[in-house]
Amino acid sequence: MRRRDFIAGGLTLSAALALRGAGAQQTVRGAVVIGVDKAGDLPKLNGATAGAKAVAAWLRGEGFEVKLFVDGGGPVKADDLFDAVTEFVERGTLDQLVLYFSGHGFLSGFSEVWMLSGAPQNPNQAIVLAECVALARESAIPSVVLISDACRSRPDTFEAGRVRGSVIFPNRPPARNVRAAVDWFLATLPGSPAYELATAQSAAAFEGIYTSALLQAYQSPTQEMVRTIDGVRVVPNRLLQPYLEAEVARRAREKSLTLFQRPDSYVLSDEKVYIGRVVEQPHTTAMRMKLPGLGDIATSALNKVGVNNLIRPWVAERPTVDTKELAKNSDDVVVRAAAAHAEDFSRVQATIRAANSSVGTPEGVASSSTLRVFGRRVVEAVAAGGARAVIDDGAGAVGASSAVRVSLPDGRAVSVAIRFADGSGTVLVALRRYDCNVTVGSGGVADANYVPVGRAPDDRISDLHAAVATSAQFGVFRIEGDRDTINRNARAFGDRIRVGKSFDPTLGLYAAYAYAQADLIDQVRSVEEYMRGDLEFDLFDVAMLARRPSGDGRSPRVMPFCPLLTQGWSMLRVLQVNLAPEVDRARDYLGGALWTTFGPKGMDILIPAINSGALR
After folding, report:
1. SS (H, E, C) 178-233
2. Are strands 558-559 and 538-539 parallel, antiparallel or unpaired?
3. Would the CA dihedral through 572, 575, 579, 581 be positive or negative?
4. Rounded CA gap, 133 and 183, in Å?
5. Are 494 and 527 in contact (CB under 8 A)?
6. Cβ neighbours of residue 355 under 8 Å, at least 6 residues apart?
7. Max Cα separation, the chain?
8. What are phi and psi of 460, to 5 degrees?
9. Which residues contact 423 (CB under 8 A, 6 or more apart)?
10. CA 107, CA 150: separation in Å to the nearest integer?
11. Which residues of 376-399 are buried (b: 16+ CB within 10 A; e: fewer)?
């Protein structure tokens, strides 16, 4: 687990601190700013506290009431942060709340975790971003902005992976009259580190590339980033997004040809929402963003299959750049990284597309379902509820590494655990009238696609599924925009994935997560109702995201007994879903793949529990 390599260089935050006083936005705004240089026994950072202090000074100049927490005078504790955020929320008068963190971080599943002073030894002394986002929406504060200058690497120790963390927003009743538009700005892409550099003023002083770029965005933005709102020149949050992608990558490259960092942002607010004003006259130069990021690559792939304008609907389409051709003769790390992202996306998309082109079992075999596994051999399979699972590496596995045929008593669905040759494994559902094609990569299960039994592959659905699944695997399958835009685009996407009178089960699952992330609970419940009508039960993830009482791993109406997608695990606590004790223990061995994948010790817990009848 690594945050920010220490590299000598020259950047400055000081100019950004000139923003003060007159003309500040006349709204009620608060900020909780956190900087932790030393978390437990992790390596000490050099610039986290300094970055937090710089951000706090800037926000005060913008008229924010700032509560600053840094570890220079004592440990930063989760309880103190909870009290600070809760005090702001309970006032009921705030128009905007900003939460900034700088320090060690890592990726747990698909959620970022911020390490406080007592972590990882105290697993509660950390902050889980996904859960904070969920509760921030209930805060009744119109605009909430979460900013992180921290790594999003996978934990490299078992102890770090067991950190569950805390939530620092209060658990309030759902607010339906005022739903917060929650924007987040993260320093780097999933699975990647963030860096800090020595400042130009002193080789002993450090600052984060991301934090310095963020503050500079308001000091000297490009002309196209600036809007005039109520007579004040500002940088709206949505126009900050492409700037940070370009500027952070440029600054990293400027200091080292081998250094690459590219931020990740998600913006739901409209163009009138901003954090800060412009200090200097904006530059007339065009936006520096010239190469496609992962969001652009995913948008292009989705557009080709008829899913338009889901990601960044307000960004004009950029000219197509052949990054592969550019990279052939370039030592530029940004060019080469862009080319690598495009190549990786295409490779994963092709792998998923090939697996989903397979023909299912013959029509009329409604009493069984076949799980065909690509990329990994299956050595053990067990089904819950008295069903029988048999590994069939003969005719049933043509084109695949293995196949598991599951009997379905009375034609109903059952939960199935399958173990791969390396000891790891996953939990899926065997569905009546569906087979399942499972794609396994080096990190675990990358995709599972349910295909109707006896139906020839539909190229349009296969192409759509591959584009959506690949976008989800890279963490960029989202619905962005203001409230009207995301509602319109969500309805269009729902129409696109509906096959006849039902939803494709897998696409319905991805849709439910995208809708939940965009705070479209009614759309999640629409997916749930369509799928329940077709499948006659609820998928665990969809029931959980719809916030139904049935969204519990112990309910007979819900299958399987845990989330199908890894990102669902980070939502269990905040959505008040309880798991069976055996599943909760296996969670400590959860991997980082898109679909839930357990390490060998996790499967050692789950398989006996299924065989004994403890898990249905």
Report:
1. CCCEEEEEECCCCCCCCCEEECCCCCCCEEEHHHHHHHHHHHCCEHHHCEEECCEE
2. parallel
3. positive
4. 9
5. yes
6. 372, 374, 400, 437, 438, 439, 447, 449
7. 76
8. -65, -40
9. 599, 600, 603
10. 10
11. bebebbbbbbebebebbeeebbee
3-class DSSP state of 69: strand
Supply the pLDDT for residue 396.
Answer: 60
Coil, strand or helix: which one is 535?
A: helix
State yes or no: cis peptide before 292, omega within 30 of 0: no
Contact, 55 vs 215, CB < 8 A? yes
Among 126, 112, 108, 110, smallest CA distance to 40 is for: 126
* Cis previous bond, 120, omega within 30: yes
Opening angle at CA 244, ends 207 and 212, nearest 5: 20
Q: What digits encode the pLDDT tens for the residues 170-211? A: 988 766 677 889 999 998 877 777 877 654 443 345 678 899
The single-letter code of the amino acid at 553 is G
Share of residues in the chain with pLDDT > 90 (%): 41
User: CA angle, corner 480, sides to 564 and 496, nearest 5?
Assistant: 65
Taking the CA atoms of residue 336, residue 340, residue 342 and residue 347 in that order, the dihedral angle to the nearest 10 degrees is: 160
Task: Write the single-letter amino acid at 390.
Answer: V
Range of 359-368, 445-454, 600-609 with top mean pLDDT: 600-609
Beta partners for 69? 34
* For residues 37-56, average pLDDT: 92
pLDDT averaged over the chain?
A: 82
pLDDT at 323: 55
**Amino acid at residue number 63:** G
Residue type, 487: N
Angle at 450 between CA 507 and CA 410, to 5 degrees: 125
Structure tokens at 397: 């596995």
Written as six digits, the tokens of 321 are: 């750049």
Q: What pLDDT is attached to residue 5? A: 35
pTM of this prediction exceeds 0.90: no
Cα separation, 18 vs 58, whole angstroms: 8
Chain Cα centroid distance, residue 220: 30
